Amino acid sequence: MRGAVLHAPGDVRVEEREDPRILVPTDAVIRLSATCVCGSDLWPYRGIEKITGPSPIGHEYVGIVEEVGSEVSNVRPGQFVVGSFFASDNTCEICRAGYQSSCTHREGMGALGAQAQYLRVPLADGTLVATPDVPSDDLVPGILAASDVLGTGWFGAVAAEAGPGKTVAVVGDGAVGLLGVLAAKQLGADRIIAMSRHEPRQKLALEYGATDIVTERGDEGVARIKDLTNGLGAHSVIEAVGTQESMMQAIRSTRPGGHVGYVGVAHDVELPGEELFFSHVHLHGGPAPVRRFLPELIDLIWNRQIDPGKVFDLSLPLEQAAEGYKAMDERRAIKALLHV
Amino acid sequence: MRGAVLHAPGDVRVEEREDPRILVPTDAVIRLSATCVCGSDLWPYRGIEKITGPSPIGHEYVGIVEEVGSEVSNVRPGQFVVGSFFASDNTCEICRAGYQSSCTHREGMGALGAQAQYLRVPLADGTLVATPDVPSDDLVPGILAASDVLGTGWFGAVAAEAGPGKTVAVVGDGAVGLLGVLAAKQLGADRIIAMSRHEPRQKLALEYGATDIVTERGDEGVARIKDLTNGLGAHSVIEAVGTQESMMQAIRSTRPGGHVGYVGVAHDVELPGEELFFSHVHLHGGPAPVRRFLPELIDLIWNRQIDPGKVFDLSLPLEQAAEGYKAMDERRAIKALLHV
Prior knowledge:
2 copies of one chain form a homodimer. Chain A is about 30% helix and about 25% strand.
């Protein structure tokens, strides 16, 4: 089959890879309909996360079940399915508490390389969720977004306790931040402040429900959020970047007793204990337990109540994956869909 | 009047201080019945927190209202009252959300020096809570504990979401940690693991409701907590120390999706962002909004349902405050009460 392989920073190639097959009875193999490039794929692409050699890449996927192992009973060949970036059994105590991305048997999907024609999905019963039917083409981007960025933005909003009566600020205008805006809106937030200085992203944020746009960053961004909230800070702040600056901007934009939901993968972040202590914020986040939200998200997309697929502003054939990386790296695209 | 003054690290003296008086119409002046030495007083006593010159000290207090300003209506002279370490208006948006220790008008009580015969209490209407009557002597230590250490341990347990069905671990066996055990028990936790290597403290922890004692610290302590919780970690961990080691011990002892309630004042703590991200814990804490809990705590103490006063294992006249500091610094005493 054909699949993307990261050879070195900046060097993604689509090449022949071995066809995946069922290795253990709980596996499934799916034929992908679409996959995409994630903001977190840019970390190794930029050389910030080291790779030790040529590495299959990609962890977002939707497609048709091709084959299932003998112990798989929740999905069957021919079904259209979506899964997320950690395979999970969905039965252990941690999964049952809603933290499938910390499942005691979790397996990272990135190493299996979802930017490809086929993908082996471990723990298929726990990991995959079938849609009601094979979706029409226009629904595919939305369902693909549920695989990671929508689920991640949603978790950010849930972790930040966005809801009625709340003012929510969103740090980060990538796909996750924008879908954090959408999630906050769906969860009933009164006011949603998107922090963005890029016009096309501001536009999508407003479409998704943002009520205010703040273009300032860092201390000035914090001051603007305070200005907009009687000097107190937002009730809920979604952090969707993962840098020291963005984390501190999120914490400082939150009022005492408020909630920071952080979903940007932390890189070289050190939180000062004393400032955090006196900030009085709640801090929660990490790799989103997308599986927790998938049934609800599929339902919202299927019924056309939300359209998270709009974050894909570039669509390319899998063979042109390298261009997708380049466009996202240069911030020419919010998110690149790869059709297979 | 007589009052304690910290002159330099290790040098606490009880000396003549100016009598406090009503400065603004929202003040009250109280005549103290008892005060005490806090673990956090040991930071400047040990020279870890710098002082710029002789400083009145102490922030825990109970006593009789002596005089109130013209705008004070919730308490009146003759009433026995308790307050906490931050004066708060109890009416601003932050107070109403239950974060009185981040009140928009908060004033720290430490600088006013509660280890004294009299104390000016700003924002008396919001800060002070009267007991149903003047308490009998045996109730005074318990009510005094509510002023800080009980309220702080209670907030730690609430922030850690201790409750039915939960296993709670407590890092720190000072008065706050021990009262965190008591709080977890009152909140209905199933299992309470006290981390302590000091026999008298272990004994009090068991009396307060601990079901298990873990004597190991650091990585070994974490491993023991994992052993006791099917390898998953505790649902709720109360951190009541404030050092890098204790914070990391608390975070690592918590299962994914679990809650860390941290109430030890953070000193030189830096939290590694990536580890925190993948830990999947909820982190909440800070200076306890004791005022939120005071009415409920007074009730429990008044009705003799809890006896937090047992943490005072040393009782001295105010004049011997220096000996109280010394005994706590040398860990000969858990907590020293100073009767006035």
